[in-house]
Amino acid sequence: MLASILTLGGIGLFAAIALGIAAKKFAVEIDPRELAILEVLPGANCGACGLPGCGGYAKSIVDGSMAPNLCTPGGSETIEKIAHIMGVEAISTDPQVAVVCCQGDNAKASLKYQYLGLEDCNAAQKIADGPKNCPGGCLGLGSCVRACPFDAIEITTEGLAVINREKCTGCQKCIVTCPRSVIKMTPLSITTHVLCNSTDKGALVRKYCQVGCIACQICKKNAPESYQIENFLARVVYEAAEGAEAVVEKCPTKCIRDFSTGYPEGSSFCAVGPVKKPEQAA
Amino acid sequence: MNLKAMDLKTFKGGLHPPDGKEFSAHKAIEICPLPEELIIPLAQHIGAPAEACVEVGALVKKGTLIAKAKGFVSAPIHASTSGEVIAIEPRLHPMGKALPAIVIKPDGEDSWDESLIGANPDELNPDELKALIQAAGIVGMGGATFPTHVKLSPPADKQIDTLILNGVECEPFLTADHRMMLENTEQILDGIDILRKVLGIERAVIGIEANKPDAIEKMTKDAASRNIEVQALEVKYPQGAEKQLIDAITGRQVPSGTLPMEVGVVVQNVGTAAAISDAVRLGRPLVERVITSTGPGIKEPKNMLVRIGTPLQFLVDHCGGLNGEPAKIIMGGPMMGQTQLSLEPPAIRGTSGLLIFRKQDLPRLEAGPCIRCGRCIGACPIHLQPTTIAAYARLDLFDEAAEYHALDCIECGCCTYICPATLPLVQSIRYAKAAIMAKKRTL
Description:
The complex is a heterodimer.
Chain A (H helix, E strand, L loop, with lengths): L1 H24 L6 H9 L13 H9 L12 H12 L9 E5 L20 H5 L17 H5 L5 E3 L5 E3 L9 H5 L5 E5 L4 E3 L7 H7 L9 H5 L4 E4 L2 E4 L19 E3 L24
Antiparallel strand pairs in A: 1-4, 2-3, 5-8, 6-7
Helix pairs in contact in A: 2-3, 2-4
Chain B lengths: L28 E3 L6 E4 L9 E2 L6 E2 L4 E4 L8 E2 L4 E10 L5 E9 L19 H10 L12 H4 L10 E5 L9 H8 L1 H15 L3 E7 L3 H11 L5 E5 L8 H9 L14 E5 H13 L5 E7 L7 E6 L4 H7 L7 E6 L6 E3 L12 E6 L16 H5 L6 H9 L3 H6 L10 H5 L6 H18 L1
């Protein structure tokens, strides 16, 4: 009885001392700031900062190799917290949101052929440059939906990708996966966008899409500061976007959309209500 | 002719789609008339597209060089009739995109270029013969259009001992090679002699599927005096795929990631052999080919000798027009052919067939979930696991797909054909293959 207690107790004591020494000797020093930063990062491991995960980014901030304001999903709130931990001044960036620059769903844009293959935009794009007649329009097969780590994208019943402005964190994963570059990064504060991605001439666009930009110049004539037309495609000048909203109704093909009044037809996001206004930059 | 099942050789895997050859197998090859314009694309072969060497307005004869080969793995292109070059511009290519093409307006004479003179193959050495084949722009006529001179130039360390002639034509509906073997037997056999001389080998085997007993009989009779074997093969798709054919005839298996020359074999299509005979004996480049224009969507299916560049619409018109509303237009065979957007693109060197189906001829294609039945695995002639690779492709896990040998897939389509859930298996694997190749290039 006594022998067994002593033996087991002895082994226990020896192990405790050995482990104690090992813990001290082989301890990996972690900067407490790194743990603190990891706490405030969103933890989505989305890769928006350029690194595969939040842990790596936290480490890079602490060792000074990366700037503390690269976490777009976290927004200005996270950036401020990181700056506080690091003891530097927050350099807030304007929050960004991804926008699908197309409204030509299956009801409005014509198809070159019926696609029966793998439900994936990248696979469809390989076959005669995609099933749509428009070279830049959304294919609606959902590659971006699968790429989005924040569940912010849906495909409407008519086959068009729509991004929820409240859920989108600006990580750009959808932009990387889209074979037609129809998704663009835009400042969240700008709600008016030209939702077309075709650089074809107006006459050709009319042939294949009811809601494509035909570069008629009406928007530019009514708000010369706010619009720019390049390659037969209008776009809102973000630096002077105040006047952009006023001409939405004047667009003959209705390809300009003000997101503060709602999402494209067929989107379940319609009911979400007013679009989130950006927080004031610190 | 009596073909006993026991004598037929084959490979493991594959399947038996309905062959549809009854539409055109009995029809002799007709010469297709001249269309109003010939659209000759610069990209008609595997490898670098050719480079135009004529100007707009140039007068050309049939067989005049109009585009030079760009590099070794490429092929020159020749005018398919006499006339005037009226444009060099992007035109709709069978690939589904507008690609550069030379447009010729025929003068109606259809006269051959006088500078083209034939040679006696007995007086030429193998290198001279190979140069003639290269200059004539000969490419694999089975549909893959790989430049023939490249196939005939094995590295010095590869010992070739067998030439296999592919007369299998395992794709349903196509009968062009079948008719060639019946009507142009002499030309094919002459081409085989030239090929044997170029490769410096004795053994040549012609592989023919048992559903063409008349072709087997004719070839056997005519080839006997030339010491060329004819091997009847079991009727099974894809019997005519290069590696499956080698397996069936020689019992050798081409290792993963290598070419048939690894096991000492060169495979050529029977149509290619005939084109080689013309190129050497008559000096005539590859400017026309036999095309089967068939399917329930065409009024009068035919086998035709067509000038390269003839628009598909013209072929259809020559076959009595469309038989109802077309729902699917395929260039090549129904299993591996290329679906066309319209009848606007021209017939090119790899066009073995033009198939038109109506809506009622097409199967229902609504994909359901995989039921794990494993039929795709049984049918795969490469012995891959199509369902697993497709699942990885679906999740964009391309490294895993590569581990399951996605790159060995020959895209024969057996898996998609057999799948009871009508899953787009081969399409998924092709997607994975493209992604794996792109990744390899960037590394």
